[in-house]
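# step 3/5: fold
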Amino acid sequence: MTNDTKNSPNSRLFGCDKAVAETIAALISCYQRHGKLLVCGNGGSAADAEHIVGEMMKGFCLPRRLSDDDKARLASVASDDTELLATKLQYGLAALSLVSHSALITATANDQDGQLIFAQQVWGIGQAGDVLLAISTSGNSQNVLLAAKAARAKNILVVGLIGASGGRLADICDIAIKVPSDQVAEIQEMHLPIYHHICASVEAHFFA
C-alpha cells in the first residue's frame, strides 16, 4: 500500500464507507427538514459526543459567514455590538450533546432511573425527522440502548457508531457504523476520523 493510499480519506473509514455515506445523506436530509442531531455515549464516547457537537455547531473546515440579510437583521437590534456579531457569528448545524446537561442527568438518575439519562432527553426534545448518533464501543451500553429505543418510538433515525461485534445496538440502529475492532481503545481511535469525515462532508454540502 502506498503512502497516498494509506492517507486517503477512504482508508480512514475502515471499510465502513457505505454506512458512513448513508449517515452523511441522512444528516443532510435531516438538516434540510430543519431537524437536529442528538449525540450520546459514555466515557470516551461522551467526550466524542461533545467533540462532534463542537464541529457541527460552528465552522469546522469551512467558513460559515453570515449573509448580508442576516447581518442587516443584527444591525437593526445590536447597536454597538453589530460589528462583532456580524463579523464573528457563524452558521451552525443544529446539534445537542446529551451528556452535557448535568442538572437534568442527575435529576433523572435520582428521581427516575440512572439508565434513563439519555432516553429522557430524547423523549423530551427529540422530534420525528431528527437523527440520534448513539456511540458505544461495546454496543451494549444500557443507557445508550434505551435512548435508541426511545428514538425509534419517536421516528428519529438512529445511527450507531460501534465496534466490530455491534452488540445489541446494531439490531436497533437504522444505520450501524461498525469499525473492525473489539478493543475499546482501537474502536475509539477509529471513531474519530469517521465522525470527522461525517462532520466535514455535511458541512461541505451546506457551506462549500
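# step 4/5: annotate
The CA atoms of residues 108 and 114 lie 6 Å apart.
# step 5/5: archive (pending)
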